[in-house]
Amino acid sequence: MFNRTEYGLHHPGNVVPCCKFCNKRERNDDSTYSNWEDHLKKICEARSEGSLFITRKSKIYSNIKKYNYPDLTTNENHAIRVIANSLYENIKMESEKSLTLYKQLDEAFVK
Predict the structure, then answer these.
(1) Of 24, 57, 64, 74, whose Cβ has the fewest other Cβ atoms within 10 Å?
(2) Is pLDDT at 43 greater than 80 in this prediction?
(3) Where are the domains of the chain?
(4) Per-residue pLDDT tens for 13-35?
(5) In the Cβ-directed half-sphere of 50, how many Cα atoms lie within 13 Å?
């Protein structure tokens, strides 16, 4: 699966286990999600742990550097968005076909 809104793949290298509170991202006034740094800051402040924000942010940046995350250009981000949207539409279409097939099989064998 992948995150359609931000076209990020959900795989072990791109997923961080966290509690439900920390995982629920805030939306900006324009309904887009806040970036991870703003989200982290809000979580730290909400938990009265504002003093830990810089430390936690530094750990994340260290991990990004350690695993050599690419610094994508605007064009590269757009290309990934196009691919992710295409994948989303394909998955949606295939799941709808599978559901239709299941209903047909259910009718054929149950009735």
Answers:
(1) 74
(2) yes
(3) 9-69, 72-111
(4) 556 667 888 878 778 889 888 88
(5) 4
